[in-house]
Structure to design on (802 residues):
């Protein structure tokens, strides 16, 4: 939330943040400008003050529509600067120098977002030669501030979640209304393929006002055993094997993501799959029941690794190179990025905490590609005022579609 | 094209390029990895060699599906490095140092793309302390290499263009089949709004396998007089005023954009609008007829500014602060970014040339927001082997829908 940003800036003794955007919209610009529909612009945040948006004249209406205070590039001598500077890097460094001084920054700043790298590397150094101190760090401050969500952000994510569940319902309906013919499923008189289901998912996501920013994961058997395999559209849907549906659409307007995974099995469920699924579900419940605000996110990865290892499964904790067993981390934050803070990995550098207002996934899984098996169960959850997690998902976690 | 990249690297005496991607897909990563469907990864290009993709184990299938040579992070000691490094920046610098040495780079590299800035600023400096020379420049080399398109890229853009025209046809049909009732249009018995047309555009873009990555510009009257105003969805469509439809969808699969603008007027066309439209069309034809490979793109901006100023219009060349007349540049390249090289602006730093294989727009316009007038005409064109531009658009440029 924006109030966190001021605290983060003060802790680092920063006067100003620059969040530029050149063509490629990135979540930090979207967040700080409240979704400005511009193709280029510069958000400036001074400590203790509201962000302002500097835009180009032909986008002044869209800049104003954000509700932020806005300025035009010409207010800071843009044209004269770009006419006289020897190159683009020098011009931008001169321009930001004028902007920062006119807005009242004193000596220090951070430049954040997903930015054209060689250009901004030069700009940062150019600002340093003008005596500005430029901040460095693994995380950008806006990413940190985006971690705890405001109530309206939680409502936006909840809304994406409700529509995501509707898409999952449609996939369930097709699987339930299919008949088994030997080694394949038949729907509406035709052999059902994963591609049929993928197209259904794409259509429904679009119809419900969402974007399939990344391809949905819809994979079965061996491919379900590789967590991020998108699945083979030509594959015929088979009974008795796991089908992993991992769906993460974003709302068209707000840009907020949701993330949900279910594992289905059409027809009779093999005993081995039933047992693995039960273990994954137990890990899910263990993490969900124990998760509390004020603790390290990585502690739940430890908890779930302990659990799986006690059950005899390999984990990437015990063997980083394993491709079988529990091979990823327990979850991640969700917001304007589908994967954002807090992260749950065991790297020593990960000190992310669970905090009230976080939106997180819990998504344990077990994978055995050589045995054509993969199971993952994932909910998106909010960390409530009581410090416990509350799921935003309603759908059954069972194997039956 | 990829062959340009080797030349650009050799000219700068660079051994290696690193094109990382963290969650936020950016065009340069998409281009160099041929659309890898991973959430994180590192493309490495050594001079004279094919790019390789370093991925995480759970995304190994999607990495392999690119057809590139692939490696896993573990091949370069990722886990041990991240376990022992004091922070993420140091860990990444150590990791890339190992990668570059093992792959045979000697001393120099560029890091390119839209990258998490504070992190990569630290990584670049970390690599410099390990005696790597890190390149700086306003353009990233992959952007430069993306400028001239391969035949398959031109085919992909042509395909988006054909579908974009179909969307425009649907808007035309609605406007043509509407009736005028006093100061508004009626369609299917209901008062037609810009929102109705915007929803139609969104539905058709999705139905035709494209993404509306940026909101379509559909504006009329005063808003049409502000080039990038997206238009008011609640506005009632009116006869006798210009309606600007500027549509720039991307193909879902390939990611390539198209960019097309038409200005319509339903009902009787006011004389002033007819005259302004004729002047814009004349500027369009002037630029299209004269454009040749081997010349500066900015020379056509000069040509069109001369033309409009001779007709008595203000331009941002004669008055950078003007909000009336000809207020933007003549066009831009189109590819995996909707606006990319070559650029047509008059900044002294812009030395972009028109080259065979470029895809460009030509889009003159005239704007008078206070008179509720704005006209823009835009085609996407390819620079052919004969050095002349060939339009990829088929639709009429006239004011009648």
């Amino acid at each position: 939330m924006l109030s966190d940003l001021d605290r983060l800036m003060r802790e680092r003794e920063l006067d100003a943040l620059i969040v530029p955007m050149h063509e490629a919209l990135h979540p930090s610009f979207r967040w700080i400008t409240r979704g400005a529909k511009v193709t280029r612009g510069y958000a400036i945040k001074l400590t203790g003050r509201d962000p302002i948006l500097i835009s180009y004249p032909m986008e002044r209406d869209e800049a104003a529509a954000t509700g932020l205070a806005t300025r035009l590039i010409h207010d800071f001598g843009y044209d004269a600067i770009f006419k006289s500077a020897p190159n683009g890097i020098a011009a931008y460094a001169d321009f930001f120098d004028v902007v920062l001084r006119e807005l009242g920054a004193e000596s220090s700043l951070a430049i954040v977002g997903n930015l054209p790298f060689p250009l901004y590397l030069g700009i940062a150094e150019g600002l340093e030669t003008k005596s500005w101190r430029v901040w460095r760090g693994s995380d950008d401050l806006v990413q940190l501030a985006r971690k705890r969500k405001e109530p309206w952000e939680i409502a936006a994510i909840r809304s994406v979640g409700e529509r995501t569940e509707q898409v999952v319902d449609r996939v369930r309906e097709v699987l339930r209304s299919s008949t088994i013919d030997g080694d394949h499923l038949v729907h509406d008189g035709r052999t059902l393929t994963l591609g049929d289901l993928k197209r259904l998912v794409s259509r429904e996501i679009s119809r419900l006002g969402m974007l399939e920013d990344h391809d949905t994961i819809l994979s079965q058997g061996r491919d379900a055993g590789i967590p991020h395999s998108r699945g083979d559209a030509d594959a015929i849907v088979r009974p008795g094997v796991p089908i992993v549906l991992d769906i993460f659409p974003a709302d068209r307007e707000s840009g907020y993501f949701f993330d949900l995974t279910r594992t289905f099995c059409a027809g009779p469920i093999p005993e081995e799959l039933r047992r693995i699924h039960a273990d994954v579900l137990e890990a899910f419940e263990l993490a969900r029941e124990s998760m509390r605000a004020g603790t390290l996110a990585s502690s739940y990865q430890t908890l779930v690794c302990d659990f799986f290892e006690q059950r005899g499964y390999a984990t990437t904790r015990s063997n980083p190179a394993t491709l079988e067993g529990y091979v990823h981390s327990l979850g991640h934050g969700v917001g304007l990025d589908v994967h954002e803070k807090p992260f749950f990995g065991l790297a020593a550098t990960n000190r992310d905490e669970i905090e009230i207002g976080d939106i997180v996934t819990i998504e344990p899984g077990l994978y055995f590609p050589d045995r054509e098996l993969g199971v993952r169960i994932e909910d998106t959850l909010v960390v409530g005022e009581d410090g416990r997690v509350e799921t935003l998902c309603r759908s059954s976690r069972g194997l039956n579609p």
Chain B has two domains: 2-145, 151-391. Chain B touches chain A through 72 residues (CB under 8 Å).
